[in-house]
Amino acid sequence: MNNPRKSAIVLLSGGLDSMVVAGLAKAQGFDLIALTIDYNQRHRIELQAAATIAAHLGAVEHIVLPLDLTRFGGSALTADIDVPKGGVDEGAIPVTYVPARNTIFLSLCLGLAEARGARDLWIGVNALDYSGYPDCRPDFIRSFESMANLATKAGIEGDSFTVHTPLLHMSKADIAAEAARLGLDAGMSWSCYDPAPDNKACGQCDSCRLRQKGFAEAGLTDPTVYA
Predict the structure, then answer these.
(1) Cα 190 to chain center, whole Å?
(2) Each residue of 104-129: pLDDT tens digit?
(3) Is 13 one of the annotated binding-site residues?
(4) At what angle do helices 16-27 and 172-181 cross, to 10 degrees?
(5) CATH architecture for residues 4-191
(6) Rounded to an integer, what is the distance from CA 112 to the centroid of its chain?
(7) Using one digit for the tens of pLDDT, what is the confidence trace for 18-64?
(8) Is 209 helix (H, G, I), strand (E, B) or coil?
């Protein structure tokens, strides 16, 4: 069993943000236990990206957990709903929001953490350059951390959990620059919600637009191949 304070449960989607979070956890000396949720999203590319990133960072364990959220639907990522391609609509929660996704995923991270004796959960939520999802806000993270320490044996025994969100107040440009600082190849990561049939990124969905904007503002080359 690893030292509980040296094992990090990292929610690894395969995206740029989760890659940087995993890199930061490793840089701080944590052993990485990566958790990727295969929720039957629109494509498999980000799952492949997560496997590549986990292997590159030397994760001691990488779990790909199947959870078919298409049974719930309610999102352009889990139902037959078109992914918007017209840009981010400020003030509106887009149809790419997956109902309660970060609550569900962090709960799974929490269960894995308690089972593995880890007390540190790392997630790449961002409240600055993002698409307006409610489960990326600081209040949500603080509330989840409080709940985690009320809902677990470890928590009520005083062995508390911490949810690490190092990207919370960073711009997408900051995140792109952080990937470069950590020596991480951004080409390992995947952001597009709706790739073309030839597996190129669409370049038009909210996630692609935010990624392109971030790399441009950071003065860095985006290695993504766009359709």
Answers:
(1) 11
(2) 999 999 999 999 999 999 999 998 76
(3) yes
(4) 50
(5) 3-Layer(aba) Sandwich (3.40)
(6) 16
(7) 999 999 999 999 999 999 999 999 889 999 999 999 999 999 999 99
(8) helix
Query: Is 20 annotated among the ligand-binding residues?
Result: yes
**205 labeled binding residue:** yes
**pLDDT tens track for 89-108:** 666 888 999 999 999 999 99
User: What amino acid is encoded at 67 in this protein?
Assistant: L
Q: Indicate the length of the chain as a whole number.
A: 227
- Residue 24, annotated as binding a ligand: no
List, in order, residues 6 or more apart from 22 with CB less than 8 Å away: 10, 12, 32, 34, 53, 54, 57, 59, 122
DSSP per-residue string spanning 188-213: G----SS--TTS-B-S-SHHHHHHHH
Residue 84 to residue 52: CA distance in whole angstroms: 28
Q: d(Cα 74, Cα 72) in Å, to the nearest integer?
A: 6
What are the structural domain ranges in the chain?
4-191
Q: Is 192 annotated as a binding residue?
A: yes
Q: Are 85 and 96 in contact (CB under 8 A)?
A: no
Give the type of residue at 73.
Answer: G
Determine if residue 88 is labeled as part of a ligand binding site.
no
CA distance 20 to 62: 16
Was 188 annotated as part of a binding site? no
